UniProtKB/TrEMBL annotation:
Key words, A-Z: Transferase
UniProt-listed SUPFAM superfamilies: Acyl-CoA N-acyltransferases (Nat)
GO biological process, one term: UDP-N-acetylglucosamine biosynthetic process
Listed name of the protein: Acetyltransferase, GNAT family
Domain N-acetyltransferase: 7-156
UniProt-listed Pfam families: Acetyltransf_7
Molecular function in Gene Ontology: acyltransferase activity, transferring groups other than amino-acyl groups
Species for this entry: Melanomma pulvis-pyrius CBS 109.77
Amino acid sequence: MDDSKYVILKRLPSPQQYNDLRSVASLTPAPIEIVATGLANSWACFLVFERADMLNDTTPSPEQKPVGMGRLMGDGAMFLLLCDMAVHPDHQRRGLGKAMMQTLVDYCDEHAPHAYVSLVADPMGQGLYPKFGFEDVAPSLGMFRCERVRKVRQAQAAETGREGT
């Protein structure tokens, strides 16, 4: 990451910024009415901003949107979940993901050195995370449960079934 062009700040995005960045980075946005609660319960969150648009070294301009983010959730001691790693496509391939990961790992090492830090890696991030010490959980198997996702999948299956008739 070119420090003359970008800055990483420890701060939360607005719910709209969060969903906008997730959407443009091909990640599923969450219902806006629950995003504020989720963000407020973050253990740590870092945003990447373009330095040229900043008011000063630590203050984005009022309408400035983050171009990257990474967030940690958890108890801050034993278990953390790295989530919401996203970089705007116009700013990818510039080292922002690596810089964000280094920031997150350094923060964990300083503030929760004994924590078990886990993540779920989408295909495009699977090459990045091992560079920062993350390993496959085999022979364990990662799983999730999300009622919202289950309902969407059921609706898609029903729609697909109708299209075939």
